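Show me any protein, fold above all:
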Amino acid sequence: QVQLVESGGGLVQPGGSLRLSCAASGSIFRFSTMNWYRQAPGKQRELVSKITAAGSTNYADSVKGRFTISRDNAKNTVYLQMNSLKPEDTAVYYCNLQMEVGVFTSWGQGTQVTVSS
C-alpha cells in the first residue's frame, strides 16, 4: 500500500505563486511516474503535469511556462511549482502515482488551490 500526502495548497492572489508537495510512502516511488491532476467545480479531472521515473516531464497547454514539476527520489516527494497563477487555476489538485511496470496506481486526498483577489 502506498500513501500519498499532498500539501502546499491555499488562497493566493492572481499572479502569485504556490508550491505543492506530495510525499509518498513505501519504496516504489523511484520506479513510478508521478502525475498532478486537478478538478475544478463542475469540471472533469484533468492532467496538469507528469514526470517519469527517468525525469521526463510533460505539461498541459494551459500551464506551460507557468508550472514546473520536479521530484526528489531521496525524499520520495514530487513538487509542483505554480507561478503566475490565474483564477482559472482554482481547483482541487491531486497527486497520482503510476508504476511504470504493471497497473498499480495510488491517489492522494487532494489539496485546494484558490486563486482570487
